[in-house]
User: Which sequence fits this backbone?
DNA sequence: TTTTGAGTTGTTCGA
DNA sequence: GTCGAACAACTCAAA
């Protein structure tokens, strides 16, 4: 088991069950080849493993968790158990592929490693432009992907009907004892109030979205004060639901006259972006750490430690930015619309390198993904594939007025200014003195003044980008 | 083979 | 208040 912590619709589990008795194994790595999960993802992963262990236990088996490298753990187990084979879901990132090679090299005797589909909708190596290279623009990629996914039979991987378990093995790690970073601060208890990891919870979330959310998805997805999105991202990140099953569940609705096709299409397109990010990292393995557009290697990022800290803690003085950063801290998740606003603020208003924002998201997001996280940060910063143009600089106040007009979202996450009304809530620094006093607010004390002036910061960002362009010519 | 048009998410300015 | 233009440069597909 890797980033695929489920039993249903799992091609590798099915393949293993067809061969004989199944011993489910998860390897805890101290120094993984793949990027080690951040603190929030570690918390999710541990609970998801516990959930998987319960599910397997209820069926009469036991999940074995062992510490080590994949190759040492699996080679030793293969020898001890005389395994007929090892089945896993194929990985498309470089570290994961290296793990597979290392396991193959380490196996002695007749045991072979068999990799199965599951992590992506299509094999990224097989989607190419007419010229034979990888796509760098989303829309042509999306059209090609649509054609391919539509052409497949559309049935989810067959479910293992009956699994016989292999139960004779030695000692494994106690899942409840696996340490999670920062747990002692009580931070993870806050995450637990908002989320339930595990396959059961993932199925409920997909079912709820299928019956409720999808009908108005395109209309509501941009309103952070509503539950307008599927909130499936962490479940997909850990494979508690298969990507193909998620796709088919919603794609199957298009024939249902009760749901407008554009609502389904809008969500499938988001799965298309997940696929595009993985596809890009597959073809451009440097993307997670290096500018996709290399001319940005000369860009003058600011080394603004205080600005970065204010951003991380939700103390920028811009209510929508602060609401988003606090939602992230308290729940391990942030609404998509707000992710764009806070990322634009860090990379354009503060001109802090996108890697600093990417690192913070990596550590605090329960859905932090090796491909989506860096690819989307690069998209926002303007350094990425098919990226936002340099002049697209979100105005945090305008975005708040447009997408949180009633202020539900800001009031929830920035309670110290909840008493303000109308435009004062979106721009407290413009509020009348009397209104601030009535609401008990002292700007600079109970809530920060804006750490940068929007129009000055915007002008400075445009100038920095203009300078880069003149140097590039 | 060459040309043309289109392309996730925005903001500001001036008419 | 509304509306269109400007803010680049490049990739890819279709004509």
Assistant:
């Amino acid at each position: 088991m890797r980033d695929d912590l489920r039993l249903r619709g799992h091609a590798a589990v099915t393949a293993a069950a067809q061969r004989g008795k199944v011993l489910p194994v998860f390897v805890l790595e101290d120094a993984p080849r793949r990027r080690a999960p951040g603190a929030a993802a570690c918390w999710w992963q541990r609970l998801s493993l516990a959930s998987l262990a319960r599910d397997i236990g209820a069926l009469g088996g036991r999940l074995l968790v062992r510490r080590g490298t994949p190759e040492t753990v699996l080679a030793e187990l293969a020898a001890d158990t005389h395994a007929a084979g090892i089945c896993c879901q194929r990985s498309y990132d470089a570290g994961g592929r290296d793990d597979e090679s290392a396991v193959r090299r380490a196996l002695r005797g007749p045991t072979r490693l068999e990799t199965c589909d599951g992590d992506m909708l299509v094999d990224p190596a097989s989607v190419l432009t007419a010229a034979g290279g990888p796509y760098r623009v989303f829309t042509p990629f999306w059209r090609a992907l649509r054609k391919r996914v539509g052409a497949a039979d559309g049935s989810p991987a067959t479910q293992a009907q009956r699994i016989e378990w292999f139960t004779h093995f030695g000692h494994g790690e106690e899942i409840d004892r696996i340490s999670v970073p920062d747990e002692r601060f009580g931070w993870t208890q806050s995450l637990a109030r908002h989320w339930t990891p595990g396959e059961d919870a993932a199925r409920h979330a997909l079912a709820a979205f299928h019956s409720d959310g999808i009908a108005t998805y395109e209309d509501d997805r941009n309103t952070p004060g509503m539950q307008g999105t599927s909130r499936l991202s962490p479940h997909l990140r850990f494979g508690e639901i298969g990507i193909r099953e998620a796709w088919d569940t919603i794609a199957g609705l298009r024939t249902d006259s009760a749901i407008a096709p554009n609502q389904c299409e809008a969500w499938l397109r988001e799965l298309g972006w997940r696929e595009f990010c993985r596809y890009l990292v597959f073809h451009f393995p440097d993307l997670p750490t290096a500018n996709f557009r290399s001319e940005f290697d000369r860009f003058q990022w600011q080394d603004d430690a205080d600005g970065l800290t204010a951003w991380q803690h939700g103390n920028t003085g811009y209510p929508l930015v602060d609401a988003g950063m606090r939602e992230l801290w308290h729940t391990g998740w942030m609404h998509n619309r707000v992710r764009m606003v806070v990322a634009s603020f860090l990379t354009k208003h503060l001109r802090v390198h996108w890697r600093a924002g990417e690192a913070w998201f990596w550590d605090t997001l329960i859905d932090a993904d090796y491909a989506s996280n860096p690819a989307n940060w690069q998209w926002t910063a303007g350094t990425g594939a098919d990226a936002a143009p340099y002049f697209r600089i979100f105005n945090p106040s305008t975005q708040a007025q447009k997408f949180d007009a009633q202020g539900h979202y800001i009031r929830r996450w920035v309670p110290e200014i909840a008493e303000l009304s109308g435009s004062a809530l979106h721009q407290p620094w413009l509020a009348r003195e009397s209104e601030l006093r009535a609401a008990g607010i002292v700007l600079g004390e109970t809530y920060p003044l804006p750490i940068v002036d929007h129009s000055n910061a915007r002008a400075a960002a445009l100038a920095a980008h203009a300078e880069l362009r003149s140097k590039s010519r």
